[in-house]
Amino acid sequence: MTSDKKTPYMSLADIKETLRAEVIVGHDNLDIPVKAGTGSDLMSDILRGPTSGSVLLTGLNNIQVIHTSVIAGIVAVVLIRDKKPAPEMVSLAREHGLPVLSTPFTMFSSCGRLFNKGLRGVE
Amino acid sequence: MSYLQRSFKVKFNDFMKAGDVSVQIQGILKTIGFDPDLIRRISICAYESEMNMVMHGGDGDVLLTVGLKSITVDVRDDGPGIENTERAFQEGYSTATHEHREMGFGAGMGLPNIKKSADAVEVNSEKGQGTHLKISFNVE
What we know:
heterodimer; A: 35% helix; B: Heat Shock Protein 90
């Protein structure tokens, strides 16, 4: 993980490794910097924080996750517990250039693993 | 005086298209080149409004008006109206159905998020009369 004193970040490739994630959308975007993380299964909760530039961990698996993420400035979505997105979700993510990954870990474990690697929350 | 106006249709219960309008509004504002935080606040308000219409409000319209000193998002629908506006703006209060909650909605934060993000919100709504939300933002 690279950091300057003001904005530590992880690359999406680091996140993929840490979460043993499968890349569904965004194979060419793994070098993007991710400056914070957020985990939620409530759309309005996701929209509340300063989420621009962050990764979203979620168990929600529907097309609205993509819209919410685009609106919120989220740079990558990771579905937890091995969830795989439906075709329309993949298609919309590709249209917006939004990487979507899938990790076998639970929300708690995923957040913990990223936190241990130095990624912090959006607050 | 406005220098851009765009109107969009929103369809009740169309969850495949829901969110499209807000993303388009975000795109327009990014193209014009407004401050990113202003765009984020406007986009959140547009999205929460759009989802309220899709879930509760019935068919309606979203009108984006961009002026030199202010931007407004006017949201009108032909739905059932808001019976108690004060309660509707309370954090945690929601009339979302089970199906809505399964999709991740129903936190009861939609209208509170709009209030928090906007510079001003005017609500005209009565039970059985539809709803008009005028959401305003100052352009610094």
